[in-house]
């Protein structure tokens, strides 16, 4: 039967005061109601099409009623589309919200702003068939995978001549722009002009066609110019600007960029002069790496794990130079506290044993080596310190560390070590001594840590959706995990700084400790 | 079978059918002959006859039988041989809709609805819009009321079917004795049986449209002769005469002489098609000897010339000069030389922009709004364009529009309903607008005032278009007519009636002797302006036709519809050269480039597409046999920033102007 049930007709009849409507009459009327409604809609759609719209509005229906010489329905004329609400309990029944309006409110309300007047803006949609990349135009499509086009072209029939691979046409302006930027980057100066160029790189739209050229340029120059500190620094600035540009889709080129960036972080030697402050470059690059991980970690799930693997390998290889260790530490630090806690802190003790002879001024005669060692030591301190500080913020009942703690720690860092070791030994029975890590099965150890490490990382950065679904299923437990996890490093400190309170805290910590062990069994 | 029983059947049948007197007579007759037992026909021993009588005696209008018979026929058709299947399936759709309408006509609303819903899926892909219309038909009175249903009931559908499929179908119907289906098929389908193998399913465009009675008339009408050639002594001609020698210095000496010869001939000839063919041959001979310097023109025969049937307005010399100047400076476009596109974006329209129009030189833009207003912008004044081409093309316009307060447009008020269309006269001195208030108004862009109000249509006027030479204009309306007017009379000169539904768009042929109209009945018609007769019907669209464009040589026409399909038609044969698929929403606007090599289309899907026209027209000449397989090449797609494209216009110098209102993406 008709989609309009006869009950509807009865209700309508009642609403206009007809009480004695025969059920047969209602039954007869129902199909006609449906037909009339469809007729009105058909005319309304015509009105909509002639108003060059694709959404039907109340005015279209009014127009249709007008065409049929029916009085329009008043009270629905409004420019905005209706907000329909779903009737609860019905799948496809909607109604419009009809609030009662208080006169007082309407009168007292301030006058609305006058609507802006219509204007015409003119721009070039295309110049001789090529769309200029200006903000008025739709953003250029990301270069499409060729697979999508293939079946389409085959369908096109015999008339279509087979198109040759698309030639990437760069406009003259873009070529000039690229040359200019490349020159500035190569000029090794830190001029104001270069800064302007970086701002332009970071904000201008329409640079997308240049991205492959820039990535190529950066990769080439980094591999060629490892001795040129200023050049490297300029290149890293360029990378940063490219990353910042909201109009550029850099994802497809990340795999080309990453090696050069990581090189600038953990290379043995950056720059050839003594005066080159390569530490600064490493710090800058570390932040850059963190930025990339944060932005594209979701797209490339393996990005961060691969990166951390590279860095931890560099750190745990005693044959690598101290500068490389420094870069690795800075890179890991920039990636977040969880990375530090899971990858650096456990290796801290064996590593410090390695570093200790270098730090000692009497044993290490080489001034440079000694300086480097202290630099690495400082980086380590900063990493662990920041990590601990972060944990403390999350955990309010614990006493905040006295500001003197870090100073104190500096003085007797070696004293604290035994305590730490004790903890780390009994907390993780699978933790291998330093020797195993440094020998060939190093990657294995890293792998296992990577897995346990991935979970708490998520807590800090929900963006980094790792490949561990169990974790997202029970975030609360992982929260505790992270809390408890770090308690191992804190335990020693708590005992040291606030002995008095340690007893009350001990109960809490024990509980957390237990939770940690429990949750640890999950994976 | 017992004769008594038979008599009972017969009497019962007659009574049921309302032949009560006949039934009575028969009864009387039997009473009289009761003893004699003399039966005229030996129907006792004829099993065929018995069966037949039985089937008649069955409840004739039993609604469930439709369903049974149809589903049997359907499953038979689906299980038939692959080679003939598509032909047999083609029969299913008319049978389906007529079954439905039979049911509705007999008052079985509920059964009809159930029947419709259970088989609707089969036909949705091709006939969705028809089904949506028919779905609402629920009472016998609706069948009468609805134009579409009525035309379906009255007319027969032509179906081309090969001999073998036809035999199969008949065999099936006889074997199963489904008289009901046979009746429907006999009543509503007209088979055109041909011998040989079945054709492939895709090439038969008519198969998808059931247009009712005028299928035959359409074929008949399309036999008429039309003269699609350009007007003799047009400006383009004059340009060839005067400017051809000036600009095309690279032409060979001999050929330019040829050219001069040609144009001399053209001016002396009467412009009949026959003579033009003679000329064509000469041309070809000339070209064969000459160097092939001209790429396109050498392969395409020159367009024949015709005489104007209307008295055309005289153009002032300075206007003519400026047009000639523009034509001389025209950029030659082709598949390798793309045009530049200048886009006018309307902002802050508050969803009120119904139409946009761009003057021939691109300097004036008019917008028609749903609040009855028309706003005209002088783009040269606004100064944002600033390009040399614009300034140059602009000087035909008298810059008299004074800056009106802080508004930078001219507001034209006068209509009392949404403005659905606006059009500029060729020199840009007048604007015509059509509105839902059933009137057309003429405005002067120099006086900024309403000059004339043309009343004649009875319903909203959907579209109005100035003729290519001005003075005359055509309008079309919801009242299913198109009308021709001249500026100096308030009564229409011609009324073109014949469309079965709203006439949605209208376009002039370049020689002014014809207009084309696109309608909601999914057809495009071509009308002779002088006689008011319909001279062509173009059938093939699957939804309402929204836009039309004529190629500058007058040979082809393009039409765009609600679904995003564009069809390119050959005017002389009334056949679709090629459907252009690509848009996925309404095609609001179409435009040919100045020399006809490119077609631009603007759509609600926020893109402007360019199509290569020459490649397809060439190939049709080269290989007529394979008309359906070739396609126009889509050359470029220019996406806009969420701005549906309402209007397109190629300037005389082949700069493409586009206009649209930016729409906030629905949140």
From TrEMBL, chain A:
The species this protein was found in: Camelina sativa
Compositional bias (Low complexity): 467-480
Entry-linked SUPFAM superfamilies: ARM repeat, Histone-fold
Name the UniProt record assigns to this protein: Transcription initiation factor TFIID subunit 6-like
Gene assigned in the entry: LOC104754638
Matching InterPro entries: ARM-type_fold, Histone-fold, TAF6, TAF6_C, TAF6_C_sf, TAF_TATA-bd_Histone-like_dom
Keywords linked to the UniProt accession: Nucleus, Transcription, Transcription regulation
Extent of the signal sequence: none
Keyword Transcription regulation: yes
Domain TATA box binding protein associated factor (TAF) histone-like fold residue range list: 2-68
Family: Belongs to the TAF6 family.
Subcellular location as annotated: Nucleus
SMART domains for the chain: TAF (SM00803)
Region (Disordered): 398-501
From TrEMBL, chain B:
Domain TFIID subunit TAF5 NTD2 intervals: 60-189
Region feature (Disordered): 243-292
Highest rank taxon of the organism: Eukaryota
PROSITE patterns referenced in this protein's UniProt entry, alphabetically: WD_REPEATS_1, WD_REPEATS_2, WD_REPEATS_REGION
Coiled-coil region list: none
WD repeats: 346-379, 412-444, 454-495, 496-537, 538-579, 580-621
Comp. bias intervals (Basic and acidic residues): 248-269
UniProt key word DNA-binding: no
Compartments where located: Nucleus
Protein keywords: Nucleus, Repeat, Transcription, Transcription regulation, WD repeat
Name of this protein: Transcription initiation factor TFIID subunit 5-like
Protein species of origin: Camelina sativa
């Amino acid at each position: 039967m008709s989609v309009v049930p006869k009950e509807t007709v009865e209700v309508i009849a009642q609403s206009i005061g007809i009480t004695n409507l025969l059920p047969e009459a209602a039954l007869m009327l129902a199909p006609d109601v449906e037909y009339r409604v469809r007729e009105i809609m058909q005319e309304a759609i015509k009105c909509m099409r002639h108003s060059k719209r694709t959404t039907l509005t109340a005015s279209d229906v009014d127009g249709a009623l007008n065409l049929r010489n029916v009085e329009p329905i008043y009270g629905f004329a409004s420019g905005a589309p209706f907000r329909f609400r779903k009737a609860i309990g019905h799948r496809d029944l909607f109604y419009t919200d009809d609030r009662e309006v208080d006169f007082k409110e309407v009168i007292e309300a301030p006058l609305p702003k006058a609507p802006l007047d219509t204007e015409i803006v003119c721009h070039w949609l295309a110049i001789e068939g090529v769309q200029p990349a200006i903000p008025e135009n739709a953003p250029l499509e990301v270069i499409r995978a060729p697979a999508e086009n293939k079946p389409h072209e085959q369908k096109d029939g015999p008339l279509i001549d087979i198109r040759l691979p698309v030639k990437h046409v760069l406009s003259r302006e873009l070529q000039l722009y690229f040359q200019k930027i490349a020159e500035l980057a190569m000029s090794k100066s830190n001029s104001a002009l270069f800064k302007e160029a970086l701002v332009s790189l970071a904000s201008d739209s329409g640079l997308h066609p240049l991205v492959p050229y820039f990535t190529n340029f950066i990769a080439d120059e980094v591999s060629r110019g490892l001795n040129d500190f200023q050049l490297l620094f300029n290149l890293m600035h360029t990378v940063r600007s490219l990353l910042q540009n909201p109009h550029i889709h850099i994802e497809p080129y990340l795999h080309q960029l990453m090696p050069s960036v990581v090189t600038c972080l953990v290379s043995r030697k950056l720059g050839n002069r003594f005066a080159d402050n390569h530490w600064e470059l490493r710090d800058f690059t570390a932040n850059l790496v963190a930025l990339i991980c944060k932005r594209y970690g979701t797209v490339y799930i393996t990005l961060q794990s691969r990166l951390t693997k590279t860095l931890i390998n560099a750190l745990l290889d005693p044959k690598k130079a101290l500068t490389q260790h420094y870069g690795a530490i800075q890179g890991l630090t920039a990636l977040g506290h969880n990375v530090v806690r899971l990858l650096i802190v456990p290796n801290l003790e064996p590593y410090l044993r390695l570093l200790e002879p270098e730090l000692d001024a009497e044993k290490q005669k080489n001034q440079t080596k000694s300086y480097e060692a202290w630099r690495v030591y400082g980086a380590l301190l900063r990493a662990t310190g920041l990590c601990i500080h972060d944990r403390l913020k999350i955990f309010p009942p614990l006493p905040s560390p006295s500001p003197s703690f870090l100073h104190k720690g500096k003085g007797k860092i070696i004293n604290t070590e035994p305590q730490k070791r004790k903890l780390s030994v009994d907390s993780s029975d699978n933790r291998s001594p330093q020797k195993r890590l440094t020998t060939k099965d190093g990657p294995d150890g890293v792998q296992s840590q990577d897995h346990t490490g991935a979970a708490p990382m998520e807590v800090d950065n929900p963006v980094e959706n790792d490949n561990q679904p169990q974790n997202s299923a029970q975030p609360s437990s992982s929260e505790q995990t992270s809390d408890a996890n770090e308690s191992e490093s804190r335990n020693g400190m708590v005992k040291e700084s606030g002995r008095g309170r340690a007893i009350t805290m001990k109960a809490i910590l024990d509980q957390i400790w237990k939770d940690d062990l429990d949750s640890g069994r999950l994976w | 079978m017992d004769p008594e029983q038979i008599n009972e059947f017969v009497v019962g049948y007659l009574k049921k059918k309302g032949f009560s007197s006949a039934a009575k007579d028969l009864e009387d007759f039997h009473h009289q002959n009761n003893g004699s037992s003399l039966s005229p026909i030996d129907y006792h021993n004829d099993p065929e006859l018995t069966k037949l009588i039985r089937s008649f005696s069955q409840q004739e209008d039993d609604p469930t039988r439709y369903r049974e018979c149809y589903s049997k026929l359907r499953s038979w058709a689906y299980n038939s041989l692959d080679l003939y299947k598509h032909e047999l399936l083609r029969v299913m759709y008319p049978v389906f809709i007529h079954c439905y309408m039979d049911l509705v006509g007999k008052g079985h609303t509920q059964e009809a609805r159930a029947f419709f819903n259970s088989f609707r899926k089969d036909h949705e892909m091709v006939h969705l819009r028809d089904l949506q219309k028919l779905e609402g038909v629920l009472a016998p009175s609706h069948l009468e009321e609805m134009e579409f249903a009525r035309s379906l009931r009255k007319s027969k559908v032509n179906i081309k079917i090969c001999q073998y499929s036809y035999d199969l179908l008949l065999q099936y119907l006889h074997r199963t004795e489904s008289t009901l289906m046979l009746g429907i098929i006999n009543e509503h389908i007209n088979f055109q049986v041909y011998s040989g193998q079945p054709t492939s399913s895709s090439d038969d465009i008519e198969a998808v449209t059931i247009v009712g009675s005028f299928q035959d008339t359409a074929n008949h009408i399309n036999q008429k002769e039309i003269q699609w050639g350009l007007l003799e002594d047009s400006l383009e001609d004059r340009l060839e005469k005067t400017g051809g020698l000036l600009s095309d210095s690279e032409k060979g000496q001999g050929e330019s002489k040829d050219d001069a010869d040609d144009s001399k001939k053209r001016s002396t000839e009467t412009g009949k098609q026959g003579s033009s063919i003679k000329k064509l041959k000469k041309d070809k001979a000339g070209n064969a000897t000459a160097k092939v310097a001209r790429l396109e023109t050498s392969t395409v025969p020159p367009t024949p010339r015709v005489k104007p049937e209307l008295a055309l307005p005289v153009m002032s010399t300075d206007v003519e000069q400026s047009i000639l100047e523009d034509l001389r400076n025209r950029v030659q476009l082709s598949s390798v030389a793309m045009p530049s596109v200048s886009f006018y974006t309307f902002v802050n329209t508050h969803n009120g922009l119904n139409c946009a129009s761009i003057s021939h030189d691109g300097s004036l833009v008019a917008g028609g709004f749903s609040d009855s207003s028309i706003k005209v912008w002088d783009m040269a004044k606004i100064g944002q364009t600033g390009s040399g081409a614009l300034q140059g093309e602009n000087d035909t316009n008298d810059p008299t529009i004074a800056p009106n307060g802080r508004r930078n447009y001219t507001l034209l008020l006068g209509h009392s309903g949404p403005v659905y269309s606006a059009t500029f006269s060729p020199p840009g001195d007048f604007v015509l607008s059509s509105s839902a208030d059933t009137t057309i108004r003429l405005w002067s862009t120099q006086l900024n005032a309403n000059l004339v109000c043309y009343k004649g249509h009875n319903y909203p006027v959907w579209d109005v278009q100035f003729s290519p030479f001005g003075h005359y204009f055509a309008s079309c309306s919801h009242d299913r007519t198109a009308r021709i007017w001249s500026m100096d009379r308030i009564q229409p000169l011609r009324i073109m009636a014949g469309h079965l539904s709203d006439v949605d768009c209208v376009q002039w042929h370049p020689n002014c002797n014809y207009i084309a109209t696109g309608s909601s009945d999914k057809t495009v018609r071509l009308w002779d302006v002088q006689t008011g007769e319909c001279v062509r019907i173009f059938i093939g669209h699957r939804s309402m036709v929204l836009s039309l464009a004529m190629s500058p040589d007058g040979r082809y026409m393009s039409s765009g519809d609600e679904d995003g399909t564009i069809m390119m038609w050959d005017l002389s044969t009334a056949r679709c050269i090629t459907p252009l698929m690509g848009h996925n929403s309404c095609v609001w606007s179409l435009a040919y480039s100045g020399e006809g090599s490119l077609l631009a289309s603007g759509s609600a899907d926020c893109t402007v597409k360019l199509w290569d026209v020459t490649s397809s027209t060439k190939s049709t000449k080269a290989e007529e046999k394979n008309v359906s397989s070739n396609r126009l090449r889509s050359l470029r797609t220019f996406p806009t920033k969420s701005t549906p494209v309402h209007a397109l216009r190629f300037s005389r110098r082949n700069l493409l102007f586009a206009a649209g209102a930016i729409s906030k993406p629905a949140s």
